[in-house]
């Protein structure tokens, strides 16, 4: 058989000396008659084999670049965040079929797409069910199906598994996004990355949609209701000061999915309808969850999903940084051990290992256990003190002597300078380990009805080098806590915004996302507070340009009280 010879839908290609059979543009029927376009890659031997399915709106042709583009890491300008379906050549070499499909309304697939995990009124998980069952019936598949892919592809695995397709035997989810509100608003502060993924900005090619994606809000509400909602959003100074959001709100058909997100700045039914975390209780197949540290909200989401799963499960929290190579090639060794066991019935001991594995920064050791967190912890405070210090002991002086710290932030329309205030511990005398979530209790007075509070914790070495440990975000008007809150583990409902009375001192409790690190001898813990993010620093240089949060659009003066009556503090998970 020559490389260019076709047998029905089959072509043989040479990928670096490896022969790969390729089936292009297969039409897969959905139950309502719409067909999805799918490419399949497998070995040249004429035999059935297990299949790994990848499904996204990013376009199967883009995923094919995994065969010709060496993996790129940030900050390479060649990094493309949407090439996430996995290493095709490796999948084929491991004797699996790699099935890469275009979601309904994207790429070469038929139908239309409506936002919020919804495709023309059809749940995306339903289409995934139909695709998986079709794959299982093909002569090149032996009936055992798993799924593959990071980020959006990972979220699709959860949606698919919740539909319980009979031939889906296991999933391996890396870097997914789950709680839909938390994917787009962190502590109530809008995150721009979903727009980058949708529209192809800041290192992402974007969704492969043309004119077949529609705004769910425009389809649901009357023009009068939409106009009222747009007017309300434009009344927010943060939104009104940001040109891209003004454009989105005035021209929604150019930014369909992002328009829907901008109009829904509070949590509720719109986000919860197909929240993958809510669907976890329906999942019965074995699930492996893998996430790297550095983007705390994704770590948080993986832990939340893990705790809601009922079947066989594993959780692996890997090392910093979070932005992996594109094309995505990491974690394949672990993934194939998982699938060899569940799809090929190879006894390789993967189910004899502890359920939870956590990489600890600092010592660079891996700790394992049967649950999260992997060690017993004591939540202990570190108090903000005068002279910008952090101490285990609270301040004894009143505010008349321990005057508040403070900073003034002008909007980024008039300055490029992001003001940051920090507090730091004395050097640790012995290694100190922290694993888990945390909280920052801050007593703050502002002179506006709202602001952002953004905290970042750093491990600072004696020479000044530092690494990000975790972050916390809270929009001041979202300061209400709900009944899930416990010591060191705060939750906010985000179901309403309560403006701040300017000039009043309020306690704000920021959720510090899960992390695992050991502060070595001589190192300091540094807590930074700002209301915007610096556009470039040691951490942000690792992220795509649009991976930041909506800045505050008004000038704000912040006073941080940390005196005998106002115990501003960090509450952190010290291991025993």
Automatic annotation (TrEMBL):
GO molecular function, one term: dipeptidyl-peptidase activity
Metal-binding among keywords: no
Keywords: Hydrolase
UniProt xrefs under SMART domains: PepX_C
Domain Xaa-Pro dipeptidyl-peptidase C-terminal: 336-571
One Pfam match: Peptidase_S15
Listed InterPro entries: AB_hydrolase_fold, CocE/Ser_esterase, Galactose-bd-like_sf, Xaa-Pro-like_dom, Xaa-Pro_dipept_C, Xaa-Pro_dipeptidyl-ppase/CocE
Domain of life: Bacteria
Protein name: Xaa-Pro dipeptidyl-peptidase C-terminal domain-containing protein
């Amino acid at each position: 058989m020559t490389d260019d010879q076709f047998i029905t839908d089959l072509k043989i290609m040479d990928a670096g000396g490896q022969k790969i059979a390729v089936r292009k543009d297969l039409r897969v029927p959905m139950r309502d008659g719409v067909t999805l376009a799918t490419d399949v890659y497998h070995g040249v031997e004429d035999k059935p084999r297990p299949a790994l399915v990848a499904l996204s709106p990013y376009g199967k042709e883009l995923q094919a670049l995994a065969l010709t583009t060496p993996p790129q890491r940030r900050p390479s300008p060649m990094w493309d965040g949407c090439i996430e379906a996995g290493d095709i050549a490796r999948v084929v070499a491991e004797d699996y079929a790699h099935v890469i499909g275009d979601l309904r309304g994207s790429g070469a697939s038929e139908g239309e797409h409506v936002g919020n995990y919804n495709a023309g009124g059809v749940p995306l998980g339903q289409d995934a069910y139909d695709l998986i069952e079709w794959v299982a019936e093909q002569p090149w598949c032996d009936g055992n199906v798993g799924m593959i892919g990071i980020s959006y592809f990972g979220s699709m695995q959860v949606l698919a598994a919740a539909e319980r397709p009979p031939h889906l035997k296991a999933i391996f989810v890396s870097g997914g996004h789950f709680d839909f509100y938390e994917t787009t608003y962190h502590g109530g502060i809008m995150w721009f990355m979903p727009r980058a993924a949708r529209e192809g900005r800041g290192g992402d090619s974007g969704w492969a949609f043309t004119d077949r994606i529609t705004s769910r809000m425009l389809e649901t509400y009357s023009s009068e209701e939409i106009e009222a909602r747009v007017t309300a959003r434009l009344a927010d100074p943060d939104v009104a000061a940001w040109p891209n959001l003004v454009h989105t709100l005035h021209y929604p058909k150019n930014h369909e999915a992002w328009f829907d997100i901008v109009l829904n700045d509070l949590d509720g039914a719109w986000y919860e309808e197909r929240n993958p975390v809510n669907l976890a209780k329906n999942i019965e197949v074995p699930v492996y969850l893998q996430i790297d540290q550095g983007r705390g909200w994704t770590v948080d989401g993986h832990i939340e999903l893990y705790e809601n799963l009922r079947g066989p499960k594993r959780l692996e929290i890997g090392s910093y940084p979070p932005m992996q190579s594109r094309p995505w090639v990491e974690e394949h060794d672990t993934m194939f051990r998982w699938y060899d066991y569940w799809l090929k019935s190879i006894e390789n001991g993967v189910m004899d290992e502890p359920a939870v594995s956590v990489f600890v920064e600092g010592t660079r050791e891996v700790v394992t256990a049967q649950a999260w967190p992997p060690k017993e912890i004591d939540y202990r405070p570190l108090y903000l003190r005068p002279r910008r210090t952090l101490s285990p002991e609270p301040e004894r002086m009143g505010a008349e002597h321990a005057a508040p710290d403070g900073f003034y932030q002008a909007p980024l329309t008039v300055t490029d300078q992001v003001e940051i205030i920090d507090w730091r511990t004395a050097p640790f005398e012995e290694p100190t380990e922290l694993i888990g979530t945390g909280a920052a209790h801050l007593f703050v007075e502002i002179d506006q009805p709202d602001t952002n509070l953004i905290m970042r914790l750093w491990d600072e070495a004696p020479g000044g080098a530092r690494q990000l440990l975790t972050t916390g975000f809270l929009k001041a008007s979202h300061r209400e806590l709900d009944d899930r809150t416990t010591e060191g583990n705060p939750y906010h409902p985000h179901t309403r915004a309560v403006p701040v009375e300017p000039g009043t001192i309020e306690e704000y409790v920021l959720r510090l996302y899960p992390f695992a690190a050991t502060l070595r001898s001589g190192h300091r813990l540094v807590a930074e507070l700002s209301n915007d993010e610096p556009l470039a620093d040691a951490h942000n240089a690792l992220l795509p340009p649009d991976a930041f949060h909506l800045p505050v659009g008004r000038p704000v003066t912040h006073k941080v009280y940390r005196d005998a009556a106002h115990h501003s503090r960090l509450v952190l998970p010290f291991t025993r």
